[in-house]
Amino acid sequence: MRTIALAGLVAFLAAVLAGGGGLPARAAPMEMGAQATVAPGVVAKLSAARLATAKYATDLERAKADGYGIITTMIPNMGYHFLNPKVEGFDVTKPPILVYVRRGEAWQLVAIEWVWPKKPATPPLPGARYGSFGAACHYTDGSFVTAASQAQCAKTNPKTGAAFNFWHPPLVTFHIWVWYPNPSGMFAEFNPLLTPFNND
Predict the structure, then answer these.
(1) CA distance linking residue 41 with residue 185, whole number of Å
(2) pLDDT per position in the chain (200 positions), as tens?
(3) Three-state SS string across the chain, please?
(4) At what angle do helices 2-17 and 40-53 cross, to 10 degrees?
């Protein structure tokens, strides 16, 4: 039974990665590193990532209990970001960042993410596509303010009153959309299908 379920999951991921998955086809500009197909070894790793994060799919409280804390509010067509500062390095089954969307009180995991201070010399997975996040001060309620240095970070967010949490320099980001289909690609930075969640 488990083998059949895993085979079905691999088939589903392969369809999504190829632009299928029951979604209407959408033309998207090709980006550096984008691929029309994904190697079988990558599909297996994405399946492992999905299985490893299944416990968080609709259970944000469990993610929080395991050390994930909010670092951004809703970023349009991307989601709310939750970071576990104890997770280091690249292991597809242990993402340092979980990306969620919300509808009312219900939270849904949509993507997993890694960040680096510069683009990795070797892609974490073949076909990786990168995004970016500018230098910013982050606050304990998930709000953030762009700032070139930590010295520019206020002790509390002037708009929300939340306490300062941390600052980071410009970052290179890597998303994997293992929990929500993305017509722009499994490794795209943004997901147009999340537009309905942007105001939640």
Answers:
(1) 17
(2) 333 333 333 333 333 333 333 322 222 333 333 444 677 789 999 999 999 999 999 999 999 999 999 999 999 999 999 999 999 999 999 999 999 999 999 999 999 999 999 999 999 999 999 999 999 999 999 999 999 999 999 999 999 999 999 999 999 999 999 999 999 999 999 999 999 999 97
(3) CHHHHHHHHHHHHHHHHCCCCCCCCCCCCCCCCCCCCCCHHHHHHHHHHHHHHHHHCCCHHHHHHCCCEEEEEEECCCEEEEECCCCCCCCCCCCCEEEEEEECCEEEEEEEEEEECCCCCCCCCCCCCCEEECCEEEECCCCEEECCCHHHCCCECCCCCCEEEEEECCEEEEEECCCCCCCCCCCCCCCHHHHHHCCC
(4) 120
Q: To which residue do tokens 């206020």 refer?
A: 154
What the block records as the tokens of 128 is 């990786």
